[in-house]
Amino acid sequence: MKTVTMLDGRPLPVLGLGTWSYGGGSTADYSRDAESIATLRRLIEMGYTHLDTAESYGKNHCEEVVGQAIKAFDRSQVFITTKVAPEHLRYADVHKAIAGSLRRLDTDYVDLYLIHWPNRDIPLEVTFEALNELVADGRVRRVGVSNFDVPLLQRSMELCATPVITNQVHYNLLHREPETNGMLDFCQREGVILTAYSPLKDDVLTHPVVARIAANHGATPAQIAINWLVRQPYVITIPKSSDIEHAQENLDALQVNLSDGDVAQLNRIG
């Protein structure tokens, strides 16, 4: 799989797997655990070695499902991103949150730990004091943020003792805020990975230009939308899927060869 180089020099796949729907989504659902674990294991075998989760997904249960799934693999071959909730950004709460995530994931460390959303009521200095300690003691390998604007990302970079690896934001063909607010340019200039979530939302799949270009390539609209994202420097994406066929379709997006004309048309629709 194509990769992008993180600021610590290590590669990260341009296509990861969002796991929000595993374990219940907005609520905890234990009824499909066996199916979910089996699906995740199949997807890892297919090449989805970057799994993105969060303590808030499934009211903590998503991490438990992911933890069970990765038991079948060499831990060093699976890259786990999880996130601390905005209400847990005080110093002691960060330590408590990572302890809970590690317990649920049944692992000694997470590869990437993100602040899920900023919390204006808790100073970033307090949060990064804890995050820096977690990196120093090895429970967290790397730190990142999510849903931050440029000033908050800049402040995070000042406070973080190690490189801020990514800012995870809503970005797709029809939701172009990271372009208009300067985030994409900033990340590409600084070498910070922009992780695009919800790459197929906002009517992207039914847009007539996307559909026409897909037909011209014998591809699907989803493949065009994903390819458009990850062909950009320092951009990766994490579409969620619990369907094997759709997951394979997303992987095959990396084989599409968009022309300069295709890209120009897609750039204009945002």
Description:
- By secondary structure, this protein is an alpha/beta fold.
- The chain has a single domain (3-268), classed as TIM Barrel.
- It has eleven helices and ten strands.
- The protein has helices at residues 33-46, 61-70, 91-105, 124-136, 150-159, 177-180, 183-190, 208-217, 221-230, 244-252, 260-268; strands spanning 3-5, 11-13, 17-18, 50-52, 79-84, 112-115, 143-146, 164-170, 193-197, 235-237.
- It has an eight-stranded parallel sheet. A two-stranded antiparallel ribbon has the order 1-2.
- Strand 3 (17-18), helix 1 (33-46) and strand 4 (50-52) form a beta-alpha-beta unit.
- Helix 1 (33-46) packs across helix 2 and helix 3 crosses helix 4.
- The chain is globular and about 55 Å long.
- The mean pLDDT is 97.
Based on the model shown, name its key terms.
270 residues; alpha/beta; TIM Barrel; 8-stranded parallel beta sheet; two-stranded antiparallel sheet; globular
Brief characterization of the structure:
With 270 residues, the chain is of the alpha/beta class.
First-residue to last-residue Cα separation: 27 Å
Number of H- or I-type helical stretches: 11
Q: Pick out the low-confidence regions.
A: none
Structural class: alpha/beta
Name given to the CATH architecture? Alpha-Beta Barrel
The CATH class label is: Alpha Beta
H/E element sequence: EEEHEHEHEHEHEHHEHHEHH
Considering the protein shown, what is the CATH homologous superfamily?
NADP-dependent oxidoreductase domain
> Strand arrangement, largest sheet?
3-4-5-6-7-8-9-10
Structural Rg: 18 Å
Shape: globular
* Fraction of residues in H or I helices: 40-55%
Mean pLDDT: 97
Largest sheet: 8 strands, parallel
Task: Could you tell me the CATH topology label.
Answer: TIM Barrel
Strand content: 5-15%
- Number of β-strand runs: 10
User: How many structural units, i.e. domains?
Assistant: 1
